[in-house]
Amino acid sequence: MSILKVEIKELLKSIIHEQITEDILNRKAPLFFQLQKHVVEELIHFLAEPSLIVMNNYNDKTIDEQMLIKQSNLDFLLNILFIELTTNKACLNNLPLKNFRIAIMDLVFALFERQKELLLVLNECSLEARNLSITLDVINVLTNKTKQCQWPESFLTQSSTNLGETLPLTKEIVDAADVYFNRNADEQLMKFMNQNINRDWNPLPHESLNQFIESLPAESVPDSTKYHSFSYLRDIPSIHIQTRAKLFYLFNIFVGKVLPIIDLSLPPGSSNLTNQIRAARNYILNTTKFQLFDDALSQTASSAGLSPESVNFDTVKASLAEHPEDTMFYQAYKQLYSNASRTFRRTNDERPWVAVFIGMHSSDGGGPFRDSITRMCAELCSTKLPLFILCPNGRTNSGSNCDRWIPNVFPPNRPISDEFKNQYRFVGKLMGMAIRTRNLLDVRFPILLWKQLVQEKVTIEDIEAIDISSFSIINQMEENIKQVKSLNEYEDGDINNNCDYLFSSIMSELTFDVVSSAGQTYELIPDGFHIPITAANFEDYCMRYRQYRINEFHRQIDFIRQGLYSVVPSAYLTLFTASELEEAVCGKGYIDIAMLKRHTCYNSDSETTPHIVRFWSVLSEMFSEEQKKLFLIFVWGRSTLPNRDDDFSLSFSISRLEPTGNVDDALPKSHTCSFALDLPQYSTKEIAYERLNYAITYCSSIDDDWNMN
């Protein structure tokens, strides 16, 4: 810079005494001579095409290292020239220099305006970068099991800006609440918030959500009444629950800002950034997830102008089902599979097919369609189809999840046939249809299946949840070895000899094989049936055993996932937890009578009419969950209710039935297409129970006007 200043002063002296030539310029100011060439070039570009001043390059050339060096030199020269030409009065008395001064000032002004635009863009980018950095710091705190990470101060200071002055968060109150919460308590609080927060309260922050947080109990003692359904929250002081809810709310505000710039279409392991966001899926509210997911569903819907396909069902053959090909599922698969990825992309309440029951005489007003779904789901979770089998706990009637059906097992080293692959994919397509149209599926699959569908890691605990004895053998073997080693250390004996004795005497018949969930035995390594387990190879055996059990259903579930992702966009679906996906496909897992009651209308009666009161009492107090499902099938042709109030497109209608004989002897009648029930005025609750139970158990055939008979 000092060299340039000296050279420019020498040139200004020369202007007074003599005319500057190229030779004088090169001799007295060699550095300026070289740089002025670049200035002239830039001025010519600028004068010829002024729009170039706002472009990042000229003639679409790629910016390389030489260009960056050149630009840096030019910026430096222009700054020096601008200062000298605007502060030296001699420039105003020389016409060529005056014109040069004007051109330089115009160029500097244009560059200055461009720089201001770039600074604005840079500030916006910086804000996104800061939000992303804060979000990742909070995720580290939430997912750190040791609780050694500190809540970032930059996150807490945003509480007053984003939540308002009435919901402040300070380090002291956050730390005080933090000691009461573990992963289980956090999950229950998120469940409580999702149950009470409307999915339409977006984008965040939202005034209604602020009011919800403010309305939570804020006493320094637990509120077992407010949180009676949440065992991990019942004993936590209310003020700390409210504080934690504020934290989750503020976190979701940040997540909502950064999610649009995250590529969630990447598979697990492809991006550390995406992996971090997915790791926090348990802490992302449904209103945050569904805002993006519902938009993606709308953008990928393809039902415009598509008429529902007609599917012919031979219900008589399906009811006998001597072969898998006779089932309703297989009949639908053969007729729908090829176009399902397109035709299943319907919007809410649209039907992707019209069910034609062969031998019956009316058009499908909705009841037969829903009934076909119900029957297919019943077949999937049965022995009529070879796709799924009852889990080991169910077959032995031990442990938990005895009603769960797992994918059938195939030899690990052999390919699965294309026919089975496509049938599993069709199951996934049906799941996608259920999510899009809210025609939910009554299937009972274990959590490990739903976890793999959202690309969440399956654990040993997930396997034990459907097979309580799955790892009992190797766990016992490891415990025996541990005891032998401990005893040898105490007695200073020969560990190797004692371990060899243990394997030769107690485990001599064990080889490198595994009994699958279906009961077949497979080799874990080539010729494994003939390789005994010894102290030397025991660890390798345990590793291969666990690896097989964890990946036993991987291929089958992956085909289901392929079908699912062909109907619904996969990106935001990977933010769902396994339980959330199960609920989106299957519903809540129980019949919410209170919600059904909210969507019921009465013809000639009211909610307080005595026989209506008795009806609701039977439904809510006397019917089991299975009976409630049968009742829904009886009146609507489906075994599940919508997940939320907004998903009801049709109200349940109850009309009074006036029989010709004794009222207490009459059975109720249903109309599945219109979701309606004709109910006699039963005189007692007990009689109402008997007649309703008989109807839902034995009157399940559809004919004529699709009434249930």
From TrEMBL:
This is HECT domain-containing protein. Residues 357-709 form the HECT domain. Gene3D superfamilies: Hect, E3 ligase catalytic domain, Hect, E3 ligase catalytic domains. It comes from Rotaria sordida. It comes from the Eukaryota. The keyword Hydrolase does not apply. The active site is at residue 673. InterPro entries: HECT_dom, Hect_E3_ubiquitin_ligase, HECTD3. Keywords: Ubl conjugation pathway. PROSITE patterns: HECT. GO terms for molecular function: ubiquitin-protein transferase activity.
